Amino acid sequence: MSRTRTPPHAARNAEGNEPEKRRAILHAAVRVFAEKGYHGCRIADVARAANVAYGLVYHYFRNKEELLESVFAEQWAILVNAIRAIDEGPGSAADKIAAIFGFVFDVYKAAPAAVRVLILEVTRTPQGLRAGSTRETFDLAVNLVADVVRQGQRADEFRTDLDPVIAATGLLGALELAVSGMVVGVVPAGDEDAIDRAKRDIVELVCGGLRRR
After folding, report:
1. How does the average pLDDT of the chain come out, rounded?
2. pLDDT of residue 212
3. Tens-digit pLDDT profile for residues 39-80
4. Quick one: CA dihedral 193, 194, 195, 199, positive or negative?
5. Contact 65, 57 (CB under 8 A)
6. Which domain holds residue 138?
7. How many CB atoms lie within 10 A of CB 195?
8. Residues 57 and 68 in one domain
9. Which of 71, 95, 120, 174 is deepest in the core (most CB within 10 A)?
10. At CB < 8 A and 24+ separation, what contacts does 168-175 make?
11. Does 82 share its domain with 2?
12. Which of 16, 39, 61 is the last residue before a domain boundary?
């Protein structure tokens, strides 16, 4: 009895759909986490939002915690790639710091749900930054920003009495709190002008502290 073989192109299509389905689940998770909160949603909610079978979520993620970590890792990876591109591009160190802040504020304009999850859920789930890919990506982000600070110090643009890693964590901390303020409604962010105003103020504040006196 002959065996029915899957055509090679069909196998390739099936394999090619897997990353797309995984991305769809991750993007659905962002929406559901932003709407209901991590602790208030179920895997079934994510599956429904992604329009996939309930069991398919477990095919890619062991549990809800791993799904959240994957969301964190993906969002941090996007930030790291942006920081790396800015770091490798032209401009002064202050220009690069402003561009990093500008990128995050622009993401908030375009995808506030993703920023809301990254900011709010990481504070409610601190183990997400303690180990695994999210922690590694966070470390990389700090080191890349520290490298920008060192560039400014070498160019006599920034103060040389500051530890670059401490300065980098302070910059990212200021960025996180500024965006957190917008997420929870403390910082006005009702339209693009308000968001741009917040960006200008925070960039001036942090760069003012770095500049040589």
Report:
1. 85
2. 83
3. 889 999 999 999 999 999 999 999 998 898 888 888 888 889
4. positive
5. no
6. 63-210
7. 20
8. no
9. 71
10. 168/142, 168/143, 169/142, 170/206, 171/97, 171/100, 171/145, 171/206, 172/141, 172/142, 172/145, 174/202, 174/205, 174/206, 175/100, 175/101, 175/104, 175/202
11. no
12. 61
Torsion sign across C-alpha atoms 110, 36, 30, 74: positive
| Residue indicated by tokens 């990353």 | 19
Q: What is the pLDDT of residue 1?
A: 39
Q: Amino acid identity, residue 176?
A: E
Rounded Cα distance between 2 and 184, Å, is 63
Name beta bridge partners: 158.
211
Same domain (yes/no): 111, 192: yes
Q: Are residues 89 and 134 in the same domain?
A: yes
Kindly state the percentage of the chain with pLDDT values over 90.
52
Residue 7 pLDDT level (bands cut at 50, 70, 90): very low
The structural domain count of the chain equals 2
Instruction: Please say if the pLDDT value at position 84 is more than 70.
Output: yes
**Same domain, residue pair 22 and 93:** no
